Amino acid sequence: MTAGNVGIVIVSHSPKVAEGAADMVRQMVGAAVPLAWAGGNAEGGLGTDVAAIMAAIDAAWSEAGVAVLVDLGGAETNSEMAVEMMEEGRRDRIVVCNAPIVEGAVIAATEASGGSPLDVVRRTAEELSPV
Amino acid sequence: MNATSHPTGGSAAGPSGADAGEAGARGSALLTNAVGLHARPSVKLTQLAKSFAAAIEVGLGAEGPWVDAKSPVKIMRVKAGKGTVLHFRAEGPDAAAAVAALVALVERRFDEEESGHGDAP
Q1: If you average pLDDT over residues A4-23, what whole number do you get?
Q2: For A53-91, what is each residue's pLDDT tens digit?
Q3: Domain region containing A112
Q4: In the beta sheet, which residues pair with residue B57?
Q5: Would strands B55-59 and B66-68 be described as parallel, antiparallel, or unpaired?
Q6: Cis peptide leading into B65, omega within 30 of 0?
Q7: Does position B12 have pLDDT exceeding 50, yes or no?
Q8: Which residues of B does the annotation mark as catalytic?
């Protein structure tokens, strides 16, 4: 059942990285988690775009919440901005994970596919980061 | 593969140790897929483990050390190679079914087809 599982959003400066990471999640974890990605700035270059991130969060939306995996600097700040700009009832169910983007996405999706709640999904992804 | 299932009840408060648990199950299986317990098999193993209510652990030896079979991060870190025997132990209502399913997954080589090369014995 996908309805109850936490959704995963991948945000990279590069659309190719974001799409590739999403491909890995789909192939390795399957279709049991809502999944979307955002990559590149509004002009199509390397960068991130708040509106695109919001659209991705919307696309991967789950009542259980959404875990966002990001790459460098701007991806994180723009993702945080996107979260802040989401409607009030959703904001507190979106987390930006402090985890490597590709591995974190696969691990978070694996955790989510078992029906784990958002805080567990986040914690599992963040286990990947060096302590 | 030997998933022993004990009748429930009579928890004689034995300390958790090397012996088979009270309402638990144990089993083991040889990793025969070429790449061993790499990323994709790790994901499949944890996903399957999560589908059971029982607490399930994986060990590289019959005496452990044990890691939580439902933790994708911990399972991926096990990095068991081909030829390793994976041990499973589970505690809970569906422990026997869980161990049997996990042993079967390993024995099926995680449903990954070894296309072409691979010196499969």
Answers
A1: 97
A2: 999 999 999 999 999 999 998 999 999 999 999 999 999
A3: 7-126
A4: B68, B89
A5: antiparallel
A6: yes
A7: no
A8: 38
Chain-wide mean pLDDT for chain B? Answer: 81
Asked if A13 is an active-site residue, the reply is yes
Q: Which residue has the higher pLDDT, B6 or B49?
A: B49
Domain annotation for chain B: domains and CATH numbers: 24-111 (3.30.1340.10)
Mean pLDDT of B1-21: 39
Chain B residue with minimal CA distance to A120?
A: B71
CATH of the domain at A113: 3.40.50.510
Whether A119 is in a domain gets the answer yes
Quote the minimal CA–CA distance from B103 to chain A in Å: 19
Pick from A110, A115, A127: which is nearest to B43 by CB? A110
Q: Which of A120, A105, A118 is nearest to A28 (CA)?
A: A105
Q: Classify residue A131: in a domain, yes or no.
A: no
Cβ-based contacts of B76 with chain A (< 8 Å): 107
Interface confidence, given as ipTM, is 0.82
Give how far Cα A117 sits from Cα of A62, A66, B35, B78, Å.
11, 10, 31, 25
The alpha carbon of residue A62 is apart from the nearest alpha carbon of chain B, in Å, by 19
What is the chain A residue with the closest CA to B110? Answer: A28
pLDDT > 70? residue B82: yes
- Coil vs helix vs strand at A26: helix
- Mark yes or no for CB contact B39/A128 under 8 Å: no
- Would A80 be classed as within a structural domain? yes
Number of domains in chain A: 1
A2 in a structural domain:
no
Closest CA–CA distance from residue B17 to any residue of chain A (Å): 28
The span from the CA of A99 to the CA of A89, in Å, is: 25
In percent, the amount of chain B with pLDDT more than 70 equals 74
B52 contact residues in A (CB cutoff 8 A): none
Query: Percent of chain B beyond pLDDT 90?
Result: 65
Of the candidates A28, A107, A111, the beta carbon closest to that of B40 is on A28
